[in-house]
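Two quick folds needed for the group meeting slides. Do the first one here.
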Amino acid sequence: MEIIRQMQERKDLTERERNIRDYLMEHPETVISMTAKQLGEVSYSSTAAVSRFCRKIGCQDYGEFRLRFLSELQSTEGGQETTTEHFVIQQQENAMTIMNKIADIDTLAVEKTKRLLTIDQLARVGKMVHEAKYIDFYAFDMNIHLARYGCSQFFHCDKVANTYAEDNIQRMMALQNNENHLSIMISHTGNNKKLVELVRDLHRAKAKTILITSQGKSRMKAYVDEVLLTPRTLTECGSIRMEGLWTVAFSAATKYLLDVMFAMEFSAGYAENIKLSKQYYEIGAKNLCDTEKS
């Protein structure tokens, strides 16, 4: 990150130029709409000081500086180490750092989930999905939304998909399960008491089951056919303090796994699924036109 690194490392900045640098590092998102004059005013310096600052770090003028500065801020690469602190929301963070932090979490969660997969396992999971007519999702709390996302995806490849979150309905479905069904359990810990009891019932009924979890040693593992793992941590620092962000990482990883399963099935029945999607979008377009006319 050439511009930002220079801002941090230059030792020959005057007091006013340091004021400019400190303001930019604390409020980077304001540069989007701020002129050189406005930057000088809020940093207790001047337009001339802003111009000198920009030249010292290798830019011809403030316009060039602003473009390069924003470009570096928006980059999720930048050579930064992904430390534990990088995945914790701090008090009063600015919009730019949060934007980059969330992008980094999503990217790293998907990459680490990808490394946990094997081709053999994907082949087995793909076969289970392909042979099932009905996809039954079981989840609680936040994971219900992930399950509903999975349902929406599988409907686009001619599967009848449903999400079951109510205890009584879950138990009834477990008792009625048959060979045309595939059950997908979503549990961050893999130790939800109700889901553990449910997966035991499914196991006794010889139902085909897949568990998505971040815990390889979960209590549910012994009763399912396949365990699709998401990363327990995003760094090598052990368990991370991720106030408000562990849900972001688990959601990104789970959606990636659901998208992989969906894409494999869509590809397997490509011609029919393309036809189905075309019919779906034609109906949607017609309904939209009718709505606009009314």
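Then this one, please, same format:
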Amino acid sequence: MRRVLILGGTAEARALAGELTACGVRVVSSLAGRVSDPRLPVGEVREGGFGGPDGLAAWLRAERIDAVVDATHPFAARMTASAAEAADRTGVPLLILRRPGWHEEPGDAWLRVPTLEGAAGLIGAGDRVFLTTGRRSLPVFTRLSDAWFLARSVDPPEPPVPDNVHVILSRGPYTVEGELALIRDHRLGVLVTKDSGGSMTTAKLVAARRAGLRVVMVDRPPPPPGRLHVATVAEAADWARGRRRGPRP
């Protein structure tokens, strides 16, 4: 039986695990363990890291994995780099599954930056910011004591949390009406987010457009060069079943 490792945690990873399992492929889904109550895919699940490229390469050999699909978050650059290195060492084929990023629409006012630090540099004194870049990014922004932040994350951030940061814990999908209510109730003027793509959190972008918010968009890191990549679960499933070699890099 064909055995496929899915590096995941995303909605696409869960969908891919379900599709491959239904087709008789034995799937192992790997979760980083950074979320306390993750949504689990069907099939076998492995939680926690591998110990870098060396550990992942050893695991691929020991488990006789036939193919790896990297369906991690578009900003999980370290995991993607480890997967690429481990694939090179073992000769196990690797495919990167990345949902498309977001694009501006009429009425948007986006400023694109390459890093979180670049986003923090665009926050001015007195700004009231809707911060949706994840709990691990908070230290980049909390040094800005002359701005106020409404930070949203799935799990609580590490303390201490400064007085100018109000944290709300929630998980998408979100509604435009709900996002507009947050913007209105907290008198927000700036949205800072990462170009994660997907439909689960696009409501904040629609709400920002309607409310006239300035949007600071952090660009996703580029994938490792020379790797096969697809944008849909269907393409990844075909490749993982061995039905196609995948698109050219």
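Slide caption for protein two: The radius of gyration is 19 Å.
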